[in-house]
């Protein structure tokens, strides 16, 4: 799929930055709702100066229609649900298993694109997707635990995958008329509001955490979200949501490598073969003819 090389480099940078998510979540010693809340709240605060210092961004924000506000808040709700489910899954199953399952989102994205947007993929793209997903399972298969707790975590990750696919398709629609910064600030702030309310209901404290946990919150906000997830929001104006979802399969590779260096989780031969398989599938997908949409 042909596009500007700069967009692909930005996509690659975003995927690598997003790969840090599972690591920071494991390092944060806090409830899932609190971790997700500070991730998105801090990310919104980081982007706020870019919103307020830009005349175009402020003009767009002041002229938002009810439909745009609705979609922005809905995307925040979906994003909060995604992070809550995924962060919680990481407390019930391993990093590899959870990350592998949550990166199955291309399957949901392809299904949504096929049914609602009439997107049609070349056989080479479908083959690349299947190969890359097989690589993900090669990485995580040995890490799947046969227990009710692990199964519960895996199901939470699967649900998180379906929800983030919807989030990207809403973003694709909104980004046709709205810049990335105001859209992301609305999404992140509304998402953190939902998460904050949930944390209050659950009785989770917002203070009293260690310095290492606060640093993990900051890493999630700046690296995983602003340098990762926000990049995807920005790219949605030029790259289809399905393609971005497919590229996120590369997150599994980055997470495995980072888990090796930071969490001392070894990379087995099977996982190494899985990494090579994912890369092969991604190459096939991105070298295939572009998406065709039936009218």
Word description of this protein:
- Helices cover 77% and strands 1% of the residues.
- It is mostly helical and 295 residues long.
- A two-stranded antiparallel sheet has the order 1-2.
- Helix 3 runs antiparallel to helix 5 and helix 6 (95-102) packs antiparallel against helix 13.
- The radius of gyration is 18 Å and the shape is globular.
- The two termini are 20 Å apart.
- The model has no long low-confidence stretch (mean pLDDT 87).
Features of the shown structure:
single chain; 295 residues; mainly alpha; two-stranded antiparallel ribbon; 2 strands; 77% helix; globular
Tally of separate helices: 14
Uncertain ranges: none
Report helical residue fraction.
over 70%
Largest beta sheet: strand ordering: 1-2
Strands, count: 2
The mean pLDDT is 87
Question: Ends: how far apart?
Answer: 20 Å
What kind of sheet is the major sheet?
A: 2 strands, antiparallel
- Radius of gyration, Cα only, in angstroms? 18 Å
Q: Report the sheet-strand fraction.
A: under 5%
**Spatial shape:** globular
Structural class: mainly alpha
Q: Could you provide a short overview of the structure?
A:
With 295 residues, this protein is mostly helical. The chain has 14 helices and two strands; from the N terminus they run αααααααβαααααααβ.
